[in-house]
Amino acid sequence: MERKMVAGLLLSLLLAILVLAYLLLEPGRIQAAAEQIRERAVTHGRDLFRANCTACHGPEGEGTPGLAPPLNAQGFLEVAGDRVIHDLIANGKAGTAMPAWAEDNGGPLREVDIAALVAFIRSWQPTAPEIPSQTTGGSPARGSRLYAATCVVCHGPNGEGNIGPALNSPQFLESRNDQYIRSVITEGVLSKGMPTWGVVLTADQITDLVAFIRGWQAAATPALPAKPLIDVAAVFAANCQVCHGANGQGGFGPALARPELLDTLTDAAITATITDGRPGTPMRSWQDALSAEEIAALVELLRGWQRAAAARTDTAAALSSAAAIFAARCAACHGPGGSGGFATDLRRPEYLAATTAEELAAVIATGRPGTAMPAWQGRLSPEEIAALVAYLRGGE
Domains in the chain, start-ordered, CATH in brackets? Predict the structure, then answer.
């Protein structure tokens, strides 16, 4: 009887040792197996990338200027999560050369293939380079003139900031790439008073502005006009403000920041009025007090007000349309105004801070596979999707 008890104790002890060994060794075995699976996925993804992606994104994911962005870059991999990369591959990107690769969207890749591509692209992250922002094309000289006419009132003549934030600062320029600057100019930040300039300026003009702003990051702004940028806000404040108001809203003299006035006047007519004055009125001739360049800068300042008013009008119309679209298409899941319901609260500051405008547009366009969020691409135009993004981000 005693021997049986001893044998039982020994057997129990042995079993305990085996269980303990299993518990100690199993996580390592599972981790090793997971690593093998990941390595096989990375290898398969590498083969798929070489066969399907290098023509646009380059053999090492370095990208092709003007065609496809770099993928092997810290700036991209730190911002884009695996789900974002998966959705971009599966569904493509509307308005670009990036097609949809998923079988469900008419492409050649299975879900396991897309997962392998994501694993391969993610494998670059530990050694991915910090690719400095490069502006494709763009003239800093043209950008300086646009900046003087459009941006200087809010951001200051040298980007030092005024009612808008400083742009000519290491903190801003080192932490924001060209795509971010382009996106803010194009889409605006409505809650902070930044208009949606994409409805007023052409893509080439925005490229010129980005080139000019990026030039501040160098020791000297490259390719600027020979003459220094005129502080047109200071010129207006010193000579015009007393009659026409600080922002052209009018006072003793008529309001100048009125689209209904500026739409009827040519640049030549405005120049003549400033140069020669208006006989029989308090408007004097400024020919002896202002240089031709300062008068030209004042004309551009007025045109900037005209463009800003047009941008605000177009933005208000786009937001009104977007609100109606959201109420009809999105509120059933996301709640009135995006405040949450069956689906994500789109007004949460944490969500808006973690999601770029581009990512939000991609989610609206392509949906979220495996969830109730459908793809709206084809049912909503690119302009309607952009308006929805502005509508949601305007609530920040």
Answer: 26-124 (1.10.760.10), 330-393 (1.10.760.10)
Three-state helix/strand/coil letters over 229-269:
CCCHHHHHHHHCHHHHCCCCCCCCCCCCCCHHHHCCCCHHH
CB 113 within 8 A of CB 53: no
If pLDDT is split at 50, 70 and 90, which confidence band does 49 have?
very high
d(CA 136, CA 60): 20
Rounded Cα distance between 108 and 126, Å, is: 29
Instruction: Report helix, strand or coil for 64.
Output: strand
- Tell the residue number behind the tokens 């605000």, with chain if given: 312
CB 101 within 8 A of CB 92: yes
Which among 102, 108, 56, 118 is positioned nearest to 366, based on CA atoms?
102
pLDDT, tens only, 62-90? 887 666 778 888 767 775 677 778 888 88
Q: Helix (H, G, I), strand (E, B), or coil: what is residue 68?
A: strand
Assess contact for 142 and 133: CB atoms under 8 A.
Answer: no
Q: Say which amino acid occupies 252.
A: F
pTM of the shown model: 0.38
Q: What gap in Å lies between CA 307 and CA 259, rounded to an integer? A: 9
